[in-house]
Amino acid sequence: MTSRPLVTLFTKNGCHLCDVVKAVMSKSTREFKLNQINIALPERAAWFERYKYDIPVLHLDGKFMTKHRLTLEQFDDFLDLASNGTFPPQAGDPNHEIDAGVTPTTDDPFP
């Protein structure tokens, strides 16, 4: 049995586009695990600098997937690739020159 793909959503409170992306993801029939990273937390300052103008940003198994928008068809296609171990990082990772470290794998609190 393979593990579920890990989707990481970089977000912050009040992000309407993040809510839209979460609604799209909730319609998928594929299995995945979702972690939400609150870039507004002080300990996420490097991620804030990297993505402050681009949320929502999504990573899939630690690799850049997309920013701003996502369709259900895109999401399911990406999940299928990840489930097969063939998901490549997508082009367009904003501010990739800012090293924010390894993609976090646990949820952050949202006050």
Structure description:
By secondary structure, this protein is of the alpha+beta class. Helix content is 27%, strand content 19%. It contains three helices and four strands; from the N terminus they run βαβαββα. It has helices at residues 16-26, 45-51, 72-83; strands at 6-11, 33-38, 57-60, 63-67. The chain has a four-stranded mixed β-sheet with strand order 2-1-3-4, with helices on one face. Helix 1 (16-26) links the parallel strand 1 and strand 2. The N and C termini lie far apart (36 Å). The mean pLDDT is 94.
Strand order of the main beta sheet, please? 2-1-3-4
End-to-end separation? 36 Å
Measured by DSSP, the beta-strand proportion falls in 15-25%
Largest sheet: 4 strands, mixed
Helix fraction? 25-40%
Which blocks of ≥5 consecutive residues have pLDDT under 50? none
Rg estimate, integer Å: 13 Å
Mean pLDDT: 94
Q: How many DSSP-defined strands?
A: 4
Which word captures the global form? Answer: globular
Question: Structural class, judged by helices and strands?
Answer: alpha+beta
What are the secondary-structure elements, in order, as H or E? EHEHEEH
| DSSP helical segment count | 3
